Amino acid sequence: MLQSTSPPFFVAAPIIIVASALLLFFVIFFYLFMIQSYRRRIVHMKDIDNLHSKFESTLLKSQLEIQEQTFRNISQEIHDNIGQALSLAKLNLNTINVQNFEDKLAITENLLSKAITDLRDLSKSLNGEKITDLGLQAAIAHELTLIEKAVTVKTELIGDDLELALDDRQVIVVFRMIQEVLNNILKHAKASLISVSLENTENAALITVKDNGIGFELDKLEEGKTGIGLKNMQQRARDINGSVTICTAPQQGTKIVIAIQPLLNTFTV
To answer: What is the pTM of this model?
Structure first.
């Protein structure tokens, strides 16, 4: 007679129980893992939304500050250049007579032409859409050309075009920051040479502005009123995913490096 080869029940039962328990454990573990992963993803997405909201808020604040500074620049430009040319033109017309008619008329015509040119250049510098249409490099080149026309300072522009690395909002904010840096150089540095270099690196776009002026003590700058402008510039850089580094010393010129990371890589899910 054939004997059964099946293991006795009391031997197979523990194996079945252990296997079932292990299977149940893995099912529960997988379920809990999926729940936890889902919750983490929800939290991560909320964090991303919060970062977007914070970024938009700080960017708007930065744009308003830049707009206020821009209005001050407009006022100064109109007063110093356009207003002066128009005042001289009016003075020439008031003193015109038969003897000097042709000379005064020619001078007045030149002054009015200068005022129109200055106004056109000012419009190009202030128009955000024009800046993005030109591109950052061309906009900076235009600004440096205006400086050389206005004062006896040599300028140079070195490097790559950064439009592939920066979006339009970043380009506008960076350009306004560069305008502020150039304005500060002309006011305080007593420089004879200004150099602007553009460079794309693996992680960031670098904009470096150097001058050969008198430099300054950075610690004293941060303590004074001018330090507020520095802090505002650093905040603007942070608002567009960047940073500002200043290297300077008395009688050794100044180097300002603006490093901006592309916004495209800032928020990922």
So the answer is: 0.61
